[in-house]
Specification:
Layout lengths: L3 H7 L3 H12 L4 H7 L8 H11 L3 E5 L7 H13 L3 E6 L2 H15 L4 E4 L4 E2 L5 E5 H10 L7 E6 L12 H9 L5 E6 L5 H12 L2 E5 L7 E7 L2 E4 L16 H17 L3 E2 L2 E2 L11 H10 L5 E4 L3 H13 L7 H14 L5 H6 L2 H9 L2 E4 L5 H12 L5 E4 L13 E4 L3 E3 L4 E3 L2 H8 L11 E6 L6 H9 L13 H11 L1 H8 L3 H30 L7 H34 L6 E5 L6 E7 L12 E4 L4 E3 L13 E2 L11 H14 L2 H4 L13 H12 L8 H28 L2 H16 L2 E2 L2 E2 L1 H6 L7 H9 L8 H9 L20 H22 L13 H8 L4 H8 L3 H21 L5 H13 L2 H4 L5
Parallel strand pairs: 1-7, 1-8, 2-5, 2-6, 3-5, 6-7, 9-19, 13-15, 13-16, 14-15, 16-19
Antiparallel strand pairs: 3-4, 9-10, 11-12, 17-18, 20-21, 20-24, 21-22, 22-23, 25-26
Helix pairs in contact: 4-5, 7-8, 17-18, 19-20, 20-27, 21-26, 22-25, 29-31, 30-31, 30-32, 30-35, 34-35
């Protein structure tokens, strides 16, 4: 197919094309000219601009859509490092992306020049180019690793991860602490505040070019699938400006008709029978959807399902429907590739992992992709999809996070997802991230995003998501215990505090303070004007107004205190009422004479609720709110045994008895309110000062008072603004001070000195770092064997997906259970220390993986472990690898030649086997 670009190129002369080439390359340095020869396509303007900035000595921030080619800029940093004899670290947020980037760079530069460092792999770590996860670089910086020598560039791919509330702080730590001579290459998805982020980078890193490009290299078209009919979400009406006018009117009419039909049917009754309910909407079957996309030429496609079980079920549905998207030759090629990639995995393990069903789907061109799969299986899907052999992938949203796996079409089944706590709507940023996978550069002329229609999916909502391209990047940074001891050990408390003030979190907080501070200044100017207007020739009126305000405040305070006392007295008085007591309801619309029918004791949690008959023959249930002061019976009358509140005649007779029995003067009686202010010495003193003040006799006193009242009202508002400014200023430094207070209290810091225990804590990079260090210090694990230690340490890394009210998990007995109980006790003590210092970092240890870790370390077979736990292979492997990472840290932090160090190493050796040990990179 001919694109507009190729059409225009075909219509130009050789001289014109040469002139265009010179214009594009004019100003390019020798390194950039050499770099461009590595690609068989011309670089985009934003790529050239970023590369020129790098070659000119600047750092860069590149914010561009998914699939636009941002990584070319990172690869240019690699090229500059190699040509200059320096080092470049290429960091990514996830191991899978690191593995993928490592393979790309090895294919270009050779294995001897490229290394890989993740939690799972350490390959050629001293190479000039090293791909690593961001956490590995953070740990290097704190450890002062010699590997940092000669480092010239750090590429931070997917830098918008710094908004992640669990891991985002790592990106800011790296940006702040990387040596000043190192240039940062930050690659981000399109965010609405890229300029703000760029300003921060300039503040902390020096000269940084900010390049924002919102142009998608492959145009994206939006659709909705209704049944098996595909509609454009937007139509070209020829009108500009109004977004609503561009939404497909057919879709809008359908949505309105569906809402109308639901309202007509909802709750409608005919006689005694309810009208039949409308049939429940059934979305189109997944095999039918894939076949529809295939007929439209829209494969390969990624369908986002937002459920691991849903992804697996979708593949089975396609298999059961005998859907086949591959030729015989493609199926054979797929089988050969899978056989090669799984050759190192034991046949028994493959059987447990559902290998046969997995292969059957792949051979038909269909696969799932989610975190519950074995990492090797996920990598196979990615490789075959990239080669065009897999045509339909059903995935959770984790696929959209950085993996280079573009498709022609992205299909979204629902616009809400479970976030672990509730079903929440997709945000515009999430929708953009998902649909960014649609359109393969150099292959597709256009990409397609398809949303499956349902009665609950409003086309206007889809249009809103599709039309909002960007989302803000907000920092999630906060100091941690490990960060504190490492920083203090390197630069001391005061310098560490100043460094943390340079975080993006504080930068954003300070920016937010600017507007508040501006309003405070405006208010202060207005206050001066009000004070001027309130001036009196007889004396200081603001002083006089202050006395009036203090008097008013004191009277209000006494009134509140007395009101509270009277309410309590009133509640007690209601408890003594009996049927037949005649009372005066003192206030409210039910005020007046009434006879008690039922005292109403114990009916409400807030006090008695007597049932009464009023003098107007109305039966009412009163509450404590009807009695601002105590009530006493003024008379008693007999209530006939045959009395029924539902009988109008009985109510009339009893009301007549009430009128006859109670004299008129009692009916009109109202208690005078007491005035506690009359007996208060402070009020008497303030009143005397007011009478003696020079301005008390001014004939314009009330005019002055109105200006003074405006002054005090605005002063209160201004003080609230000042507190908000103070609350946001130095928020990171204040948190750091509290963290240091906890560490000093526990003996990990002594002023600017890091103690031996503090240095041990500095080697533990874990959410429960302090609890890990305390467990080591208290000797909780000293008497455990390798399997028991694995079980205990698992509680520090594992987080269950079970609800809070689930049954207690199974744990090993004996020393393991005692050690786990000691860890929970330690956590409780640390939680108390944190509360005393107004911080909250440590969650309770999670025992949900302890039995599984124990069994695996003891040599249990994979099928028995997975069968007993109900875990997926991917979850199991990920949990074991996280446990291995922390066991390694425990071994490093433990004293040399200690029992713990040896036991931790043995635990690691016993668990690094089978599917856990298999590494695609190695």
């Amino acid at each position: 197919m001919t694109t507009p670009d190729t059409q225009s190129a075909a219509g130009t002369s050789p001289a014109q094309r040469y002139a265009a080439y010179r214009k594009r390359t004019d100003g390019n340095g020798p390194a950039l000219l050499d770099f461009q020869t590595l690609y068989d396509f011309a670089l985009d303007p934003f790529q050239i601009e970023a590369c020129r900035a790098l070659e000119g000595g600047s750092g860069v921030l590149v914010a561009a859509p998914t699939g636009s080619g941002k990584t070319v800029v990172g690869e240019f940093a690699v090229h500059l490092a190699l040509t200059g004899g320096a080092k470049c670290f290429y960091t990514t947020p996830i191991k899978a992306l690191s593995n993928q980037k490592y393979a790309d760079l090895v294919s270009r530069y050779g294995a001897e020049k490229v290394g890989l460092l993740t939690g799972d792999n350490s390959v050629n770590g001293e190479a000039p180019i090293v791909v690593m996860t961001t956490e590995v670089l953070r740990n290097m910086l704190y450890a002062g690793s010699q590997t940092l020598a000669g480092l010239a560039f750090v590429v931070m791919d997917e830098v918008h991860y710094l908004a992640d509330r669990f891991r985002g702080a790592v990106w800011e730590e790296v940006i702040i602490h990387v040596p000043e001579s190192v240039r940062i290459v930050a690659l981000s998805a399109t965010v609405s505040n890229a300029e703000e982020f760029g300003e921060w980078l300039q503040a902390v890193r020096g000269d940084t070019a900010v390049i924002v490009d919102e142009h998608r290299p492959v145009p994206l078209f939006q659709h909705m699938l209704v049944g098996t009919r595909l509609y454009d979400l937007f139509v070209d009406t020829g009108r500009k400006g109004d977004r609503q006018a561009r939404i497909n009117p057919q879709l809008q009419r359908m949505a309105v008709e569906e809402v109308r039909r639901a309202k007509v049917n909802q709750g409608r009754r005919t006689g005694r029978r309810r009208a039949p309910r409308p049939q429940r909407f059934r979305p189109p079957a997944r095999p039918d959807v894939i076949e529809r996309l295939e007929r439209a030429g829209l494969l390969p496609a990624i369908t986002f399902v937002f459920s691991r079980a849903g992804c697996d079920a979708a593949v089975l549905q396609c298999l059961n429907a005998n859907l086949r998207l591959t030729s015989k030759e493609e199926a054979e090629e797929i089988a050969a590739h899978v056989e090669l990639r799984t050759a190192d995995i034991a046949r028994d393990d493959l059987r447990v992992l559902g290998y046969d069903d997995f292969l059957a789907g792949l051979e038909r061109g269909i696969a799932a992709h989610h975190a519950g799969m074995l990492p090797t299986f996920k990598e196979i899907v990615e490789e075959l999809f990239t080669r065009g052999l897999i045509k339909a992938v059903f995935a959770t949203e984790t696929l959209a996070l950085g993996i280079n796996m573009p498709a022609r079409t992205v299909l979204i089944e629902k616009l809400d997802k479970w976030n672990g706590e509730a079903h929440v709507d997709l945000t515009p940023g999430e929708y953009t991230q998902l649909t960014g996978r649609a359109g393969r550069r150099g292959i597709d002329v256009e990409g397609h995003a398809v949303v499956i229609w349902s009665p609950s999916v409003d086309p206007n909502s889809v249009a809103g998501l599709a039309g909002t391209r960007t989302y803000p990047l907000n920092s999630s940074f906060r100091p941690s215990y490990n960060m504190a001891v490492n920083l203090v050990g390197a630069v001391g408390v005061e310098r560490a505090r100043n460094l943390l003030e340079e975080s993006f979190a504080q930068f954003q907080a300070d920016r937010a303070v600017v507007g508040l501070a501006r309003q405070v200044r405006k208010n202060e100017e207005a206050l001066a004007g009000y004070a001027k207007a309130a001036e009196c020739h007889l004396g200081d009126f603001m002083e006089y107004a202050g006395l009036r305000r203090r008097l008013s405040d004191r009277e209000a305070e006494l009134s509140r205190e007395r009101s509270t006392e009277r309410r309590a007295e009133a509640a007690r008085s209601l408890e003594h009422l009996r049927p037949g007591d005649v009372i005066l309801v003192p206030s409210g619309r039910r005020s007046g004479l009434a006879v008690v029918l039922d005292p109403g004791l114990g009916r409400r949690s807030d006090g008695p609720a007597p049932l009464v008959l009023t003098i107007s023959r109305s039966v009412q249930r009163l509450s404590i709110q009807d009695f601002p002061r105590p009530v006493e019976p003024v008379e008693r009358i007999r209530i006939p045994k045959s009395f029924s509140p539902r009988n109008p005649q009985a109510r009339r007779d009893l009301a007549s008895t009430l009128r006859a029995k109670v004299p008129d003067d009692v009916r009109e009686r109202r208690r005078h309110r007491d005035t506690p202010a009359a007996d208060d010495a402070e009020i008497a003193r303030l009143r005397a000062e007011l009478r003696e003040h020079p301005v008390h006799g001014c004939d314009k006193r009330e005019d002055h008072a109105r200006w003074a009242e405006r002054y005090f009202r605005l002063e209160r508002e201004t003080e609230q603004l000042r507190r908000r400014v103070e609350g946001r200023s130095q928020v990171i430094a204040r948190t750091f001070d509290r963290v240091c207070a906890v560490l000093e209290q526990l003996g990990y810091l002594a002023g600017d000195t890091v103690t031996d225990e503090g240095r041990r804590l500095g080697r533990i990079y874990n959410e429960l770092d302090l609890l890990t260090a305390e467990s080591l210090r208290e000797g909780v694990w000293e008497k455990l064997d390798h399997a028991e230690l694995a079980a205990c340490v698992s509680a520090l890394v594992f987080e269950s997906r079970q609800p809070d009210d689930a049954a207690p998990p199974k744990t090993p007995t004996g020393p393991t259970r005692d050690a786990l109980a000691a860890m929970v006790r330690l956590w409780g003590e640390l939680d108390g220390v944190e509360k005393d210092n107004r911080v909250s970092f440590l969650r309770e240890p999670d025992l949900g993986f302890a039995w599984t870790a124990y069994q695996w370390a003891k040599g249990q077979d994979l099928d028995e472990v997975l069968l007993e736990t109900g875990m997926t292979a991917g979850d199991f492997v990920r949990a074991v690898k996280q446990l291995l990472d922390l066991l390694g840290q425990v071994a490093d932090a433990a004293p040399p030649n200690s029992h713990i160090r040896k036991t931790a190493r043995r635990a690691m050796d016993s668990m690094r086997r089978g599917v856990v040990a298999y590494s695609s990179v190695a």
